[in-house]
């Protein structure tokens, strides 16, 4: 070992990413965001501000939303991580949030969309029937520079209404009324 100290040696991180057992080697100072993008190869999670202000890097760790730019990758050891790539079903069917973002025109440039989708999923798991104020509060840590948030709020509200609140969605948050016609949403 030349000038490499134990503190900078790569460490193996074993965790579950989108339901699959995953192991990757990472420097101890590397963020979960960078490890997901570079070591794991999942580029859906975006690097926006890199200081935890914008929410573009939001992922779920053990079901809780986390700014991946603020979490060290080594802290994910043994955890279950879900990224935007994990939202779609096993045969590629869109998650109701993804489908309703498309239906409502909630994504503009799309850069913030992965983080907002993950935060919205966590919100709907915690509160299956949020009102507009609760949706706004739940998504407050996610900045979108292209929209006025109206369509985003409509898409989340539509997803909640399709799921029928508690009991209308399976554990993954997929609606049991996938073929339901679009609702009015919040206007």
Q: Major β-sheet, in short?
A: 5 strands, mixed
The strands making up the biggest β-sheet line up spatially as 2-1-5-3-4
Helical run tally: 5
Average residue pLDDT:
87
Q: Report the structural category.
A: alpha+beta
Roughly how much helix do the residues carry, as a percent range? 25-40%
User: How many DSSP E strands?
Assistant: 5
What do we call the CATH homologous superfamily of the largest domain? Beta-grasp domain
The ordered string of helix (H) and strand (E) elements is EEHEEEHHHH
Q: Do you know the CATH architecture of the largest domain?
A: Roll
Global geometry: globular
Number of domains: 2
Broad CATH class of the largest domain: Alpha Beta
Summarize the structure in words.
- This protein is of the alpha+beta class.
- The protein has 2 domains: 11-86, Beta-grasp domain (Ubiquitin-like (UB roll), Roll), CATH 3.10.20.30; 96-163, DNA polymerase, domain 1.
- It is 28% helix and 13% strand.
- It has helices at 32-39, 96-104, 113-126, 132-138, 150-163, and strands spanning 11-17, 20-26, 58-61, 64-67, 80-82.
- The protein has a 5-stranded mixed sheet, sandwiched between helices.
- Strand 1 (11-17) and strand 2 (20-26) form a beta hairpin.
- The protein is globular, with a radius of gyration of 17 Å.
- Mean pLDDT is 87; it is low at 166-187.
